[in-house]
Amino acid sequence: MFLECFSQCLNSDEEMRSMKIDRELKNQRRKLRQQVRILLLGSGESGKSTFLKQMVIIHGRGEFTNDEVTQYKQIIYQNCINSMRVLIQAKENFGLKWARANSLEYANHILKIPNSSTNVDANTFIFLSNFIGNLWQDPCIQMTYDRRNEFQLVDSCKYFFDNIGRISQIDYFPTNRDILMSRKATRSITEHLFHIQNIPFLFVDVGGQRSQRQKWFQCFDGIVTAILFLFASNEYDQVILEDKKTNRVVESIALFETIVNNKFFSNIALILFLNKTDLLIDKLPKSSFTRYFPDYKGDRFDVKQVQLFLLNKFDSVRKNRHRCFFFHSTTAIDTENIRTVFNDCKKVILEQNLRSLLMQ
After folding, report:
1. Considering 37, 148, 183, 248, which one is annotated as catalytic?
2. Does residue 209 carry a catalytic annotation?
3. Residues flagged as binding site
4. Would residue 183 show up in a list of annotated catalytic residues for this protein?
5. Of 106, 115, 159, 208, most Cβ neighbours within 10 A?
6. Is the pLDDT reported for residue 6 higher than 80?
7. Record-annotated residues binding Mg(2+) (predicted)?
8. Contact yes or no for 227/39 (Cβ under 8 A)
9. d(C-alpha 159, C-alpha 135), whole Å
10. In the prediction, which pLDDT does 337 show?
11. What structural domains and CATH numbers belong to the chain?
12. Which residues have C-beta within 8 Å of that of residue 189, sequence separation ≥ 6?
């Protein structure tokens, strides 16, 4: 009798634990369904990480923590050193000669810093900043910079070089703009949660380089609400890092085609950001758009016409013409622009999320 009662008690305890687990799983599933999950996709250097920094400013804490600022300070130091190293090496490849007497000596100081160096202390950077500032003023480096579409150089290097005097101060504390301009390649999948109007928005950022793209479909587990696909519209005259021959626009369109026509994403809101409009405005007078896209018949200096042409290139690869497709012209480093654009996107995303909930 005792054994029978003991057995019944055990069964009762097991059932209660099982019911508790079931309730917890049900609650987790409910929370996941209510959560808005957004994949940030696009080629490398399209502005995905910058967009996420803007979300921190607009919908997060409004500022970065001291630990984050310290990390970004290191990234900015590295951006300055690595960018000048790239310019020096490109100058050598172009066969250009230094215009200033001390430039060779300054360049050698920069080249002595290992490319793999991840930590540069403030005193070392202050020492190097004098060389960086002087080299940036050398006409030879300026000529090399003007040919930057022929090699791989981060967009923000001019901004940092122009501000090298401020950045090299011993008490330098990066501003939000400095942080937005900093560049570090995303090598892994990262998730960022923001509560916007009391609704949890989970942004999933994956690497944009070719080697990272196999991870993209792993991010889709049936509860993705929307895809934000970012495209750097200023890169019409540049090639990708991986093979140094494929045009970046062609690469982005091919990538977009695999996303927009994928059956797993057929019921997901798709929003295209024609990003880096500010850099496109700056580049069009200097680099002929029709040289790279001879089928373009519009005004080669008109930013809106050029972006509309590029938009039509993306739109042309969509097989399902009934599917809603949204797009915006953006400048990811412009906080007010991203604030306005994301407010528009938010309406579309929440409508899609509501439809998904009603279908479950």
Report:
1. 183
2. yes
3. 45-50, 155-156, 180-186, 205-209, 275-278, 332
4. yes
5. 208
6. no
7. 49, 186
8. yes
9. 15
10. 98
11. 38-63+186-355 (3.40.50.300), 66-181 (1.10.400.10)
12. 204, 205, 206, 207, 215, 218, 219
249: pLDDT strictly greater than 90? yes
CA-nearest of 219, 172, 164 to 48 is 219
User: Catalytic annotation on 344?
Assistant: no
Count Cβ atoms below 10 Å from residue 113 Cβ, excluding itself.
17
Q: What is the mean pLDDT of the chain?
A: 88
Residue 180: what residue type? Answer: L
**DSSP assignments along 126-184, one per residue:** HHHHHHHHHHHHSHHHHHHHHTGGGS---TTHHHHHHTHHHHTSTT----HHHHHH---
Say whether 89 is catalytic.
Answer: no
Least confident window among 108-112, 127-131, 217-221: 217-221
pLDDT tier, 351 (very low <50, low <70, confident <90, very high otherwise)? confident
CA distances from 49 to 159, 194, 221 (A): 18, 15, 22
- For the segment 117-125, the average pLDDT, to the nearest whole number, is 85
If residue 229 lies in a helix (H) or strand (E), which one and from where to where?
strand 226-232
pLDDT of residue 188: 79
CA 275 to chain centre: 10
